[in-house]
Amino acid sequence: MSSEKTTCSPGRLEAFSDGVFAVALTLLVLEVKVPHLHDAVSRPEAWQALRLLAPKLGSWVLSFAYIAVFWVNHHHFFDLVEDVNPGLLWLNNLLLLFLCFIPFPTAFIGDYPLNPVALASFAAVLMGAGLVFTLMWPYAYRHGLLRSSVRKKVVQGVVRRGGLGPPLYAMAALGAFWAPWIAWIVFAAVPGYFFWHSMHRPSCE
């Protein structure tokens, strides 16, 4: 048990976080605008408009996948948390700050999918979120906020897996200035990796 006074219950913090996740997901889709057609019944014009909208739709799906993976892992984490102290509270707020900002670089890469600055900004936000969430695990363990049944090797395993994300995002940010496809490969591969691991909930043993 942490010596610091509990700020709020884990349930209350998770409920607040779920609301923020929902808002972030909602803001993503607001950037996908219905195209304006000069001829309301023209099928060729409608198909052309949808083709032009493809980068926006792609960036929306990509960011939705990232936020969904963060939400699932966030749920798994707080399912193992028994107490919340001020430090964990503010680490969680910092995580939510990065996640709430994701709609901005999402819109940026949707408009300019080959612009290295846009791609690097998307990578930087993901890197920040990944770092903070990875740090939440050892912080909670060190301060006795996790269930007593959670073993140190479980936390080490999560940190080891989570620690792969930030270097890959850094590679995407730097690689985008050499070849944009490098960033896109990283962006497509990383959520798949974490999705697979999120299907295997950490055990306490």
Topology:
Layout: H1 10-30, H2 43-79, H3 86-101, H4 103-111, H5 116-142, H6 152-162, H7 165-175, H8 180-198
Helix pairs in contact: 1-2, 1-3, 1-4, 2-4, 2-8, 3-5, 4-5, 5-6, 5-7, 5-8, 7-8
What does this structure look like?
With 205 residues, the protein is mostly helical. It has one domain (10-198). It is built from 8 helices and no strands.
Secondary-structure element sequence? HHHHHHHH
Strand content: under 5%
* Amount of helix: over 70%
Oligomer: single chain
What are its keywords?
74% helix; mainly alpha; elongated; single chain
What's the short version?
The protein is built from eight helices and no strands. By secondary structure, it is mainly alpha-helical. The chain is elongated, with a radius of gyration of 19 Å.
